[in-house]
Amino acid sequence: MRDIAVLMLLLGAVAMALRAPWYGVLALAVFGYLNPHRYAWGFSTELPVYQVLFIAVGVSFLIQNKDRQPIPSDWRVPAFYALWAYFVVTTLDAINPAAATPMLVKVSKIYLPLIFTLLLINTREKLFYLIITIAASIGLIAVKGGIFAFTTGFAHRVQGPDGTHFAGNNEFAVATLMAIPLVILWRRETANQTLRLALTGVIPLMFVSAISSQSRGALVTMVVLVPLLLWHSKRKYLAVPVLALGLVAAAAVLPETWFGRMQTIETYQDDASAMGRIQAWRDGIAYALANPLTGGGFDSWAWITEREWHSAYVEALAEHGFVGLLLWLSLLYGTIWSLTRLPRLTRHIPEMKWVSNYSYMLRASLAAYAAGSLFLGITYWDLLYHLIFIAVLVKKFALEELAEHEGVKAAATNRRPWVEAGRVRTA
User: Fold this and answer.
1) Residue 273: which pLDDT band, with cuts at 50, 70 and 90?
2) Mean pLDDT across the stretch 203-227?
3) In this structure, what DSSP letter does residue 32 have?
4) Is the pLDDT of residue 266 over 70?
5) Which of 198, 228, 263 marks a domain boundary?
6) Cα–Cα distance between 365 and 388 in angstroms, integer?
7) Distance of alpha carbon 146 from the chain centroid
8) How would residue 421 be classed by pLDDT, with cut points 50, 70 and 90?
9) Which of 264, 289, 282, 283 shows the shortest CA–CA distance to 274?
């Protein structure tokens, strides 16, 4: 029965993509983050659902040459393509090109569909629908995990769907925390009071889900994320007491195993897992210093050290050298900086309050990634690049609206002397 439901959902998504390709962009987000086929048990789990949907979007894009836009003129777009191209270079010069090539193909399959976001999301309304699609897709899984944690007395780790890029408890926690600012943005931008109330209840469940993952990286990520959310909260007088109450409640209900695991952050010298990660980081950095231009190529940890990198920063450096690391860092932190500056351009215009909401919540989401990826090898996550492209579109739409507003203001200013002169003459 579940397989039939997944198949019907896929066929419906394909039909919508053929009707309007931008619907396909939303459908790709659903199948990329919610992964409905991973909840079935039969034939649909092996179906290439994402590839089928991508082909449908591509065909619709080629057939319907309307309702699209040129790729935005933004420095992050060529930087992204440069990083992608450099992956080809590092693969050709990899320690084992035969082993690195399949990963290059996998990463390219992740990156290629993202281009449709830049081409087909050509209005702010469509952008909002894309954001809430991502938020809902990850949020549904997180809410399910939060309810599971409550009903089982927090006795088990919460993890993501099997076979997905955030199946593990650590990856799932970071993805959940990255999605929380998107849910908050959704809540702020919707006018439906019932939906706002529902989303208010979703946010604590998502935090519960992340905490119940028993991920130490999640705790570090929350240390970065929560202050940002509090800083941009419109009702700090209410948010701070709620947070304090939540901490007290967590201390009362979380099992001893959770606290024991978190305490290993302070005593990492005695933790074999932590020391193994540190040794992998040392080996990766040492190899990059010896091979600064191209590193070892994809998945080169198997030849350089004894375990995976467990850090996106070390992964980017060890696998693609300092050039790859700088390109990757420029995309991540350059976008965070851009999202910090953009609201300053529009803060004097009440009608453009949306720019601050979008910018600050996207920045919080990327900050959560920046913290969580310190201890996870998630350099190639589609969610990261999706948010970067969304930030590109936010800037594009904001500058266009700002130019329109300034044009109207300038036109009104130019007309005013004639109005004043007319008043003088008639007086």
Assistant:
1) confident
2) 90
3) I
4) no
5) 263
6) 10
7) 20
8) very low
9) 264
- Same domain as 416, residue 303: yes
* In the predicted structure, residue 422 carries a pLDDT above the cut 70: no
C-alpha dist (Å) from residue 134 to 116, 129, 185, 392:
15, 9, 12, 17
More confident residue, 290 or 5: 290
State the Cα–Cα distance between residues 176 and 130, nearest whole angstrom.
17
Are 255 and 285 found together in one domain?
A: no
Same domain, yes or no: 15 and 41? yes
Higher pLDDT, 306 or 77: 77
Residues 26 and 168 reside in one and the same domain: no
Is 0.85 topped by the overall pTM?
yes
Distance, CA of 336 to CA of 359 (rounded, Å) = 9
Domain of residue 207, residue span: 127-263
Report pLDDT for 239.
65
311 vs 289: CA distance, rounded Å? 17
Same domain, 105 and 218: no
13 and 158 share one domain: no
Sign of CA dihedral 161, 167, 169, 170: negative
Q: Which of 53, 62, 50 is nearest to 119 (CA)?
A: 62
> DSSP 3-state assignment of 255?
coil
How many domains does the chain fold into? 3
Task: Say if residue 326 is in the same domain as residue 353.
Answer: yes
139 and 59 within one domain: no
